[in-house]
Amino acid sequence: AQTVTQSQPEMSVQEAETVTLSCTYDTSESDYYLFWYKQPPSRQMILVIRQEAYKQQNATENRFSVNFQKAAKSFSLKISDSQLGDAAMYFCAEGFSSNTGKLIFGQGTTLQVKP
Amino acid sequence: EPEVTQTPSHQVTQMGQEVILRCVPISNHLYFYWYRQILGQKVEFLVSFYNNEISEKSEIFDDQFSVERPDGSNFTLKIRSTKLEDSAMYFCASSSSGRYQETQYFGPGTRLLVL
């Protein structure tokens, strides 16, 4: 069974500093996709960044970047210049190149940003 | 920007009652999903739906659950006889394609409380 593991239930970072959230996954699929979703207190989940497994280059979206280590099945999220609005629950998720679109989520990491 | 909407935002029901959770996906999307999140736990896939039929369902999605797209805009999740353990946040999502993991856009969720 495919699983996604986030080993950090909670993290905190000082405003303007950098923080890295960890995620590992376990899949036997050769073609898959990895995502980080943000869930603020409003509860609506928002896509932060996505990575296609076949791409070697790490995805970047403004202050958000990933460190994708395919052999290690690791997919960490780095948030640079943290802002108060970054405080949220962050979920790592995995999807597959099938036509059902199912996503498998990790347990989530609550990020606190201290002013 | 188009968004997924869900109604109601909160629903309280008695055990054994039927509930219908409603979602309006993004208008040109063809793939629809339901996920649930029990308080404090990970987001879990329930079902994916395409071309008026279920593409994939999880073990959670038993005979008590059903989905329907009654018209061109709504996508509903029905729980026939609610149990206490059905209390959770239910998220609807939609995407333009299921293949290649096109980005899924999530609604704000419906918080269901079964008493």
Number of alpha- plus pi-helical segments of chain B: 0
Instruction: Give helix % range of chain B.
Output: under 10%
Radius of gyration of chain A, in Å, reads 14 Å
Q: Identify the biggest protein-protein contact and residues per side.
A: A-B, 27 and 29 residues
Q: Mean pLDDT of chain B, rounded to whole units?
A: 92
Cα separation of the termini of chain B:
37 Å
The count of strands of chain A amounts to 12
What does this entry show, briefly?
The complex is a heterodimer of chains A (115) and B (115). By secondary structure, chain A is mostly beta strands.
Spell out the key features of this protein.
heterodimer, A: 115 residues, mainly beta, six-stranded mixed β-sheet, four-stranded antiparallel β-sheet, B: mainly beta, seven-stranded mixed β-sheet
Descriptive overview:
The complex is a heterodimer of chains A (115) and B (115). Chain A is built from no helices and 12 strands. Chain A is mostly beta strands. In chain A, strands 2, 5, 6, 10, 11 and 12 form a 6-stranded mixed sheet that branches. In chain A, strands 3-9-8-7 form a 4-stranded antiparallel sheet, with no helix packed on it. Chain A is globular. Chain B has 115 residues and is an all-beta fold. Chain B contains no helices and 11 strands. In chain B, strand 4 and strand 5 form a beta hairpin. The radius of gyration of chain B is 13 Å and the shape is globular. The mean pLDDT of chain B is 92.
